[in-house]
Amino acid sequence: MQGFLWYFAMGCVRISVSGLRMERFINRAVRSGVTLRNMQRRSYTLLELETDLRGRRVLARLAQELGMTLRVLSVHGVPGWLRTARRRWSLAVSILAAAAVILVASQFVWFVRMESDLPGEVQFRVEQSLAELGVKAGCLRSQVDTQRVQACLRRDYPEIAFIGLRLRGMVLSVQIVAAVPEGDILDTDAPSQLVAGKTGVVEKVITTEGRALVQPGDVVVPGTVLISGQVPTQDADVTVDRYVHAQGQVLARVHYRGVANAAIGEPVFIRTADRTVHWVLEREGESILLAGRELTYDASHFAEESYAIPWITEWWGWRISRQVYTRMEQYAPLSLEALEQLLCRQAAHQALQSLEDGEILSRSHRAWIQNGRLYVEAAYTVREDIAQSIPMTGT
After folding, report:
1. Which is more confident, 168 or 91?
2. Closest CA to 224 of 391, 392, 393, 387
3. Within 10 Å of residue 76's Cβ, how many Cβ atoms?
4. Which residues pair with 263 in a beta bridge?
């Protein structure tokens, strides 16, 4: 590889030699120390080969002494580029300008990629802190002090357990691992008990470790002890309490309820397929429309969604955003049946939004009209595990 790079830097010339004294020509070239590469004998009197710039001069002298004809076919490598640049100076200037732009751009950070399991609000504050510390798209690579950034974030955010920054090329990767709150850490060897997390009717109790305090049919409320970690044992006519880490499952029927309402007889706005995309350049309250057709409808008939371009956001104070407008079509008031179906879906979403995992046993809904509005209530009965583990105190 090094030999090839040296050969490319010094230049490579492909020539053709024609004549009757071909063997003598090759022998004298070798004795003169000329490097011959990729020789191809086209015919008895025609030979093509590659050599360097010095070899071309020596071969030209030998061809003249032996009465042979030498012709240069092509010049490769750095000398070939320079030779082309003399004839096409605009190409050379363009290449140099592009190289300069790439060299300057490589001194900046253009992409900041963050991997985090922090809550949305905390992550937003961390991103603001990173921007205040100079870690943002468009900053100089030399200004990114990874050790200082790590120290400042660990000092200001106790929610962070680990933070790592890796600068690779024009990309800065930030990896953040959230700390586990002390209250959520439960020693598996420490005594604990299972309590109810929701109100429900117990259907099945599966005890792996500990003593069950409820049975099927019991009604429990949040905080009711389901499986205790205090297990009495009989030892020589003496009852001794043994404390264990309670484990098991308590399946119960839990009821969920959601209510939605809407005015009767009011028009409804529904999204259509007509969309308009605007590319906007913003800075300190000013905005410039870069691309996108003019809106032909009143703004109240549009649903707006704005997406910031990550790699250029906050670039030297400017921000490029992509705004998507969807035209809203106004329809006549829905019938009571159609409005009830719409509200039923909304009530069901509201009722089940806190459900994590469970089996839906039954569902129902009822509707009524009050003060000119239609109300829909959705009710669900779900079988789920309501047991939550908490440490035992006073043991």
Report:
1. 168
2. 387
3. 14
4. 373
